[in-house]
Amino acid sequence: MAEVYGQLEYESIMLSTLPKLENGQVLIKKVKEELDKGRNLLETQPQINNENIKEDFRFKLGRIDGLKWMLALPEEALKILTMLEEKGGI
């Protein structure tokens, strides 16, 4: 299918279908669980830790931001597909 569409279209199609597919739903569920866990730890046990960066609140904030980015990918892909369709690209 990648040979039919350009790389941007192909990746957008794949990402936009994640919430509809069983494996995508499992992935999204796990990402949401990690996001909730990270937020909870940050709210209940925030700390500065210069010796173990993974325990530092700044590291945890970055991880939370990355997980939120992952959850936004399917919606962003739909926006890209809509834009391409409006321009006649698909």
Task: Describe the structure in your own words.
With 90 residues, this protein is mainly α. The chain has one domain. It is 70% helix and 0% strand. It has three helices and no strands. It has helices at 7-16, 22-44, 57-86.
Structural class: mainly alpha
Shape: elongated
As residue ranges, the low-confidence spans are none
Profile the largest sheet. Answer: none
β-sheet strand percentage:
under 5%
Helix segment count?
A: 3
SSE order: HHH
The count of DSSP E runs of length 2 or more, i.e. the number of strands, is 0
Radius of gyration: 17 Å
Classify the helix fraction into a percent range: over 70%
Key descriptive features of the protein:
single chain; mainly alpha; 70% helix
The gist of it:
The longest helix has 30 residues, at 57-86. This protein has helices spanning 7-16, 22-44, 57-86. With 90 residues, the chain is an all-alpha fold.
Topology of this structure?
Elements: H1 7-16, H2 22-44, H3 57-86
Helix pairs in contact: 1-3, 2-3
